[in-house]
Specification:
The complex is a heterodimer. By secondary structure, chain A is an alpha/beta fold. In chain A, 38% of the residues lie in helices and 15% in strands. Chain A is built from ten helices and ten strands. A six-stranded mixed sheet of chain A has the order 3-2-1-4-5-6, with helices on both faces. Chain A has a two-stranded antiparallel ribbon with strand order 7-8. Chain A is globular and about 70 Å long. Helix content of chain B is 48%, strand content 12%. Chain B contains 21 helices and 15 strands. Chain B has a four-stranded antiparallel sheet, covered by helices on one side. In chain B, strands 1-3-2 form a three-stranded antiparallel sheet. In chain B, helix 3 crosses helix 12. The two termini of chain B are 40 Å apart. Classes of the chains: A alpha/beta, B alpha+beta. The interface between A and B is large, with 51 and 51 residues.
């Protein structure tokens, strides 16, 4: 993989979590956070004139591109800001306002983070393919909500895809609660995970500037904040519960909390019966069969033959 | 690689030198507008930018050691060097071991990001009747006409086409003369070596040269440097296609405006007009390489690619050149280093021969410049390949250049006929210590030292 040069441009995709319910519960109100976010975006654009920016909004109901907005009109003219910044800022602010209005009803839902990540990655792939020079992509997620267990699989898939595409994922959480999935996202892709607890006026901006503004080249030179211990436990595929010890299908490696005769992901049949821990069967299966069942080695036919032996 | 003439690098270093040499009061004035701060920020190195941004919203200073802690192991010296550079540019002030951003600079840069402060510094748009015939395409055509007229003049083509413009104004000639691109010879002005190099560069580098020349002019004519700098910074951040008002400009700035008009960098109806339009030549200055199409996520500054910026040269591995152009200017530029053989209605063919390349080298053009010119103007089909130009041809051009450097004369003194061997040894050792020996032979007791060393040995 090529090394980043000092003059290379970046592509930053900002995923804003606009779930009104989560923001209502956080210490920092949404509009203040947005103002600081907008300044951060301006700073990013000022770094390099070739830097590209995409902003996505994620609410419990949908994910939308806020900038560049499909079919947006020209914003009203106002010379107070550097004009290029003004165009972006106006679009982002109006887009977020529109999304918040649309999502007003769902208070308890979780934002569609995995959908937003997938859209972001597809967009990154499209832009990288269409541009002649090398553009270094990264994603910044500003999240105010908590994890949704049903999103684990899709989220992990997007994270691994991001890692393959060498996209850094930075995460900034505005609430006190850690999000395990996003922590893993930052850790696996090589990005930073920060949490901003205090509602001080500019602390979000300063944190963002310090940790998430650096591009690929600068990250090789300046340090990033270190990550604490991350909970890498997985969730089971059948009930979406976090498990420490479970059953793993030997063909597709999907995780279950209880034994199932057929793997739901790859439809492999496991037809031998397993002896539950502590409740031995009356027929007294030899321990070898239990060991074979617990490891579930080989194809079903091989399992059958090992059972026949016993 | 040495600094390219008039390129962005030279502009950056010149600005850096100016800022370093300005006394503090002047710096205060330079930093007093958000546009200037933003433009200066953009000229910094990447690590410098990150350091500035990290300190932008910190109200108190931080210890230097803490800042050095930010750097990874092995890069601390580089970061220290960057802090030192920032200090030289007077962007960072040090106070008893803790550093912080220059307060004026910090204030105005924050304003640039948030939209406060003196918003006129980004250019006041003209509120009034829109000039209907001025559109982005029209501006592009106007700018190209003017620019090509100047380049034509430099190349020496005196043919006037149907849309001939007035002969170049005195101020343009002055600028050309002062930047060393042309000099006065018999029968008018003739082009210099630097002028040839200038011709081969892309439009952005050429525009940087012109702007740089204004800075130097300001120095020599004792104009207010700060005013000129501020105006330059403002110009560079204007938006293409919008009319700006000349109300707030000072007399010197209006004079600069009229001279830039002759170069095609801006358009103004007449000298007294209250509005002016920047053209793509000046707005695309800060966006360096050509980027892709302007679709989603595109860079904010949209640039207008005119037909003269599309590639048109095809170079074969047998050194034959096919250029799909009928512009006399481009043909004249190609003629500098290509032996043109035939010309058709939309095509010019030729060969790159040893004679033609040596002719160019004699004019002072380097092989690298020829290669860069060919690769930036290469036809899109050629640009799909890696490498863009055939390696055989590029290597051959470089070899032809190195042929001229086979012999390197140095003035020297030849010693022979030493009476005793000890004498030779003594002088040999001394000369070796001061490092002036070019050649020596112990058996024959002879050696060659430089002229400079000869003076030293005579003292001995």
């Amino acid at each position: 993989m090529a090394e980043p040069l000092e003059s290379d441009s970046s592509l930053l995709v900002v995923i804003l979590d606009v779930n009104p319910g989560s923001w209502a519960r956080s210490a920092l109100p949404l509009d203040k956070a947005l103002q600081q976010m907008v300044i951060f975006i301006n700073a990013y654009l000022a770094l390099n004139t070739e830097n590209r920016l995409v902003v996505l909004g994620a609410s419990p109901r949908e994910c939308r591109f806020l900038y560049p907005a499909p079919g947006g009109g020209a914003p009203t003219h106002d010379v107070q800001v550097y004009e290029q910044f003004r165009a972006v800022d106006a679009r982002v602010l109006s887009g977020v306002a529109a999304m918040v209005e649309d999502a007003a009803g769902d208070d308890a839902g979780h934002s569609l983070m995995s959908r937003a990540l997938s859209m972001a990655l597809c967009h990154i792939r499209r832009i990288s393919a269409s541009v002649m020079t090398k553009v270094w992509p990264r994603i910044l997620v500003l999240s105010a909500g908590s994890d949704s267990a049903r999103e684990y699989i899709s989220l992990m898939n997007s994270i691994f895809a991001a890692e393959k595409m060498s996209v850094l994922v930075d995460v900034c959480k505005v609430v006190a609660q850690d999000s395990v999935f996003l922590q893993q996202a930052a850790e696996i892709t090589g990005g930073n995970y920060v949490r901003v607890d205090t509602p001080a006026n500019e602390s979000l901006l300063q944190t963002l500037m310090f940790t998430c503004l650096a591009d690929h080249y600068t990250r090789g030179i300046l340090n990033a904040p270190s990550n604490e211990l991350i909970d890498f436990r997985a969730t089971c595929f059948c009930h979406r519960r976090v498990v420490d010890i479970g059953f793993v299908c030997s063909v597709c490696l999907s995780i279950f909390c209880q034994m199932a005769p057929v793997c739901s992901t790859c439809q492999t049949k496991f037809t031998f019966k397993v002896a539950r821990a502590g409740k031995g069967r009356a027929s007294g299966e030899p321990p070898a069969a239990v060991a074979a069942a617990a490891t579930a080695a080989g194809t079903p036919s091989a399992a059958m033959s090992s059972l026949n032996l016993s | 690689m040495a600094l390219q003439l008039g390129s962005e690098e030279e502009f950056k270093t010149t600005i850096a030198e100016y800022l370093e040499s300005l006394p503090t009061q002047f710096c205060k004035r330079v930093f007093s507008s958000p546009a200037a701060c933003l433009a200066i920020f953009r000229l910094l190195s990447t690590v410098g930018k990150q350091l500035v941004m990290s300190m932008l919203y910190l109200d108190s200073g931080i210890q230097v050691q803490d800042v050095l802690q930010w750097a990874k192991v092995g890069h601390q010296r580089m970061v220290k060097g960057k802090i030192h550079q920032l200090r030289k540019l007077q962007l960072v002030v040090e106070d008893k071991g803790s550093v912080s951003l220059n307060p004026i600079f910090r204030e105005q840069l924050r304003n640039a990001l948030t939209g406060g402060g003196d918003f006129n510094s980004f250019g006041i748009p003209y509120v009034g009747l829109r000039d209907k015939r001025v559109s982005v395409a029209w501006l592009a055509r106007y700018a190209n006409e003017r620019w090509e007229a100047i380049l034509h003049f430099m190349v020496g083509r005196s043919q006037a086409s149907a849309e001939s413009l007035a002969p170049l104004s005195e101020s343009v000639r002055d600028i050309l003369r002062m930047s060393g691109l042309m000099e006065d010879g018999e029968g008018g002005m003739t082009i210099t070596n630097r002028g040839f190099q200038f011709l081969l560069q892309d439009a952005a580098s050429q525009a940087w040269t012109v702007l740089l020349q204004y800075l130097r002019l300001a120095e020599t004519q004792a104009m207010d440097v700060v005013e000129v700098l501020n105006f330059l910074f403002q110009l560079v951040s204007l938006q293409l296609g919008r009319a700006y008002s000349t109300e707030a400009l000072t007399r010197n700035q209006r004079k600069m405006l009229s001279e830039l008009r002759d170069f095609g960098l801006i358009y103004q109806d007449d000298l007294e007009s209250k509005r002016f339009y920047p053209t793509h030549l000046i707005t695309s200055l800060t966006s360096g390489t050509k980027s892709g199409d302007g679709k989603d996520g595109a860079p904010i500054q949209s640039e207008l690619t005119t037909s003269s910026e599309h590639g048109y040269i095809i170079l074969e591995t047998n050194c034959r050149v096919y250029a799909y152009t009928k512009s006399p200017l481009q043909i004249a530029i190609l003629n500098l280093f290509v032996h043109l053989m035939s010309q058709f209605s939309n095509l010019v063919t030729g060969m790159i021969t040893r004679a033609s390349v040596r002719r160019a080298l004699l004019h002072g053009i380097t092989a690298d410049q020829i290669i860069i010119f060919l690769s930036t103007n290469a036809h899109p089909q050629m640009q799909n390949k890696i490498p863009v130009l055939p390696v055989t041809v590029t290597d051959q051009i470089r070899l032809w250049e190195r042929e001229r450097n086979r012999l390197l004369p140095t003035q020297a003194q030849f010693y022979k006929g030493f009476a005793r061997k000890q004498d030779f040894e003594r002088i040999f050792k001394y000369a070796q210590d001061i490092g002036v020996i070019l050649w020596a032979s112990k058996e024959k007791c002879q050696m060659v030292v430089t002229r400079h060393g000869h003076a030293k040995i005579l003292e001995l």
